[in-house]
Amino acid sequence: MGALSFGKSLPRWAAGVVLASALAVGHAQTLPATTGETLTGQPLALAQAVKGHSAVLIASFSKDAGSGADAWAKAVRQDSALAGVAAYEAAMLEKAPGFIRGMIKSGLRKQVPVGAQDHFVVLTQDEPLWRSYFGVSTDKEPYVVLLDASGRVLWHGHGDAQSLGPLLRAALR
Q: Which of 41, 56, 98, 132 has its CA 20 to 30 A from that of 173?
């Protein structure tokens, strides 16, 4: 295994149930073209950034999901099996009042390692498209998508990295 394990493997039956439920969630297949802003202040459209290579997208739609998304990002960055896969984290702030967004971004910059800030995008529009893409059923959990180089979804799920990480790694095979 890589430098960081996603935790103990799930029993085979549990992994099957989680995988089946993750795959059963309907979501839009086209990555929204929305341009957001990275934590370094640069414009970034995830649809363009991931074009032509494998990527893991980690999204949060609430403050409650933020710590789980951070755990996913850390696990992906530290796992040697995912070394060739670009990882991007996105936070949807469309529902946050405009005057609070700056404070949220400032807090995120303090939490996200400097080397990962160019791969962290803050989105403030098209929330329904993003919710559809990730198949959001609850705001309290982070959502994760593994894409191949052609943009096809190889795996998606929501929840914690410890439980679902082994399934993400299995999808790479």
A: 132
